[in-house]
Amino acid sequence: LLSHFSSVGFWGLVNNAGISTFGETGWLPMETYEKFADVNLLGSIRTTLEFLPLLRKYKGRIVFMSSIIAYFTLGNGIYSMTKAAIEKFCDALRLEMKKFGVQVCIIQPGNYARSTKIQPPLSAEEIWSELSEEEKAVYNKEYVQERANFFNSILSEGSANGNEVVDAMVDALTSPAPKARYMVAKLKEKALVFVCALFPTAVMDSVLSYALSK
Question: Is Electron transport given among the entry's keywords (predicted)?
């Protein structure tokens, strides 16, 4: 693969692969955490390392698909965890690649669930059937139903204008001066990120706890 590209040049790499699911921390088995880390984090790292020699040679671009969920979580902490990790990987890589003329960009979409279908709706029965006996002893079906309804309502509110994210990716690849981060999100989503970044953790916890209780 590398020998083929070395003869024609190689300009850009977009790390877009990702999977998502919903569930409180104890609801998900360790195998799920390992799978998510492997796809969302290590998959991007493996691909980047493979193409790094060519990207340095041709002074190319590396684009990573993150999410505003890297800043906070609303029931999908496993996805948030992987996006926060890829952000830190990119921060280190961006600084290291400057001396080679390689630019590293992060795309941070808001809720585009209706565009990407990355997360299908989950029924309470599906979630309940996967819980361990220990978790079933702590939670009840009514709580699981409430959480499922909440998360599915968020999915239904997702933007269908996926072209907005694609436009950001194109700009990251082609602009003479690309941004380090492209936040493509609704105003209320950007406001959540703003609160998370600038206010004490206790304030953000209160905001998210209120949202989760609605």
Answer: no
